[in-house]
Amino acid sequence: MPQGDKDKYTDKQKRKAEHIEESYEDRGVSKDEAERRAWATVNEQDGGGKKSGSGRDD
Questions:
Q1: Residue closest to 2 by CA, chosen among 36, 38, 41, 30
Q2: I need a labelling partner for 24 at 20 to 30 A (CA). Which of 5, 18, 33, 43 fits?
Q3: Residue 27: in which H helix or E strand, if any?
Q4: Is 43 exposed, middle or buried (0-12, 13-18, 19+ CB in 10 A)?
């Protein structure tokens, strides 16, 4: 099971990760690997557990 606290993610990000994970599992990827890939995808697309703000990274 991947490490990390998922509390900082939005509900939308959590749902997105769940759908991505299910998609990987449907293609025969193991549960642990599917979960790892799903969160890696969410992090890459959304910038991790950051809350949206002004849209600027200072």
A1: 36
A2: 5
A3: none
A4: middle
Residue 33's contacts (CB-CB under 8 Å, 6 or more residues apart) are 24
Which residue type is seen at 33?
E
Structure tokens at 31: 């549960």
pTM: 0.73
Asked whether the beta carbons of 30 and 5 are under 8 A apart, the reply is: no
pLDDT band at 51 (very low <50, low <70, confident <90, very high): low
The C-alpha atoms of residue 15 and residue 6 are separated, in whole angstroms, by 12
